[in-house]
Amino acid sequence: MAKIKSAKKRNITNEKCRQRNVAVKSRMKTLVKQAAEAIESKDAVKIKATLPEALSEIDRAASKGVIHRNSAARKKSTLQRIAGAL
User: Fold this and answer.
1) What is the Cα–Cα distance from 19 to 78, expressed in whole angstroms?
2) Roughly how many angstroms between the first and final C-alpha of the chain, as a whole number?
3) What is the pLDDT of residues 67-84, one digit of tens each?
4) Which element (helix H / strand E) includes 11?
5) 3: number of CA atoms within 13 Å, CB side?
6) Distance of alpha carbon 71 from alpha carbon 76, whole angstroms
7) Mean pLDDT over each residue of the chain, to the nearest integer
8) pLDDT tens, position by position, 10-20
9) What is d(CA 28, CA 21) in angstroms, rounded to the nearest whole number?
10) Is the distance from CB of 24 to CB of 60 less than 8 angstroms?
11) C-alpha distances in angstroms, 30 versus 10, 11, 65?
């Protein structure tokens, strides 16, 4: 356990950031999964509703630094490529 005051403060800050990152990543994964299910079911209406939300959430996670920007680009590209093939 930290003994120095600034280290204790840093631990608190790190925990807050970790919780935020977990929440952002969880929401992103949920929306990506919903979009993937819509693509798998080949339901055009569902795809149009869920795909933009998923892409937006991926961008949001990348802008907050939760995931790397190249990882975000790869996830978006994969979703769009599969959706475009339909």
Assistant:
1) 27
2) 55
3) 999 999 999 999 999 998
4) helix 5-41
5) 0
6) 9
7) 95
8) 999 999 999 99
9) 10
10) yes
11) 30, 28, 18
8-45 confidence digits (pLDDT tens)? 999 999 999 999 999 999 999 999 999 999 999 998 99
Could you give the CA distance from residue 57 to residue 24 in angstroms, rounded to a whole number? 8
- Quote the tokens at residue 67: 């995931």
- The residues, any chain, with a CB within 8 Å of residue 66's CB and separated by 6 or more, are 21, 24, 25, 28
Give CA–CA dist 55/13, Å, rounded.
Answer: 29
Scan for tokens 């939300």, then name that residue.
53
Whether residue 35 contacts residue 54, with contact meaning beta carbons closer than 8 Å, is answered with yes
Place of tokens 């996830």: 75
Whose CA is closest to 72, among 50, 53, 57, 82? 57
